[in-house]
Amino acid sequence: MEVRAKKHLGQHFLKDKNIAQKIADSLLLNTPTILEIGAGTGVLTQFLKKKENTKLLVSEVDDESIEYLIENDIISKEDIVGDFLKLNLAALFKTQVAIIGNFPYNISSQIVFKTIENKELIPEFAGMFQKEVAERICASPGNKQYGIISVLTQAYYNTEYLFTVDENVFTPPPRVKSGVIRLSRKEDSNLGCNEKLFKQLIKTSFNTRRKMLRVSLKRIIGANEILKDSFYQKRPEQLSVQEFITMTNAIESALKS
Questions:
Q1: pLDDT, tens digit (0-9, with 9 covering 90-100), for 5-59
Q2: Domain around 91
Q3: Exposed e or buried b per residue across 85-116, where buried means at least 16 C-beta atoms within 10 angstroms of its C-beta
Q4: Residue where a domain terminates, one of 185, 207, 236
Q5: 3 pLDDT more than 80
Q6: How far apart are CA 257 and CA 252, in angstroms?
């Protein structure tokens, strides 16, 4: 049977086996389980199956893809777990799991945010994104691509941009290039601050990224004296993860005083 790529699912099926091998090889840790998101026609799945001492599960929502994967003995029905964004990962996995995939572009950022929410379970993450999104996740402070997803990801994971993938290795070819990245969880995921406030400050700051912090943070802290400090003359893209953590602690103290 033929699997048709569906626009509403953001599907672009990888057809280059060399690229698939490189993506599979990007996982360095020997986790008990690998979860592939968006298996499509199974080009990457076939290489992931060859990894020793690791159980492979697949998250796939397209009925045609699921039928194709089962009919061609690429993966068994029992190893298909459904929609990643709807999964209760803590209930599904009792051991560490690595996430990998040629991610549907329309939900790729949501996949990263869910990974961060479940960071205790996920020591490693690798996969293919639209190039612009891949670069944004790995961007450094001072870069115009540096934003909410950059800071939140880099707070908990070391990020690496591995390689760029051309449009012609997909069916149908997307209109943009793709990029493969790897995330490796930091040894200490305790930020040393109020994480709820940390996330609130990041989102509030970047939602008005052209404004200085002293302006954008008024909605959280009001006309507090702390905003007169020279530090708050900066814009959010100038701050490192550690500076956001330091700012979170300072603002939390100011809110309590």
A1: 677 777 788 899 999 999 999 999 889 999 999 999 999 999 999 998 999 999 9
A2: 7-185
A3: eebebeeebeebbbbbbbbbbebbbebbebbb
A4: 185
A5: no
A6: 9
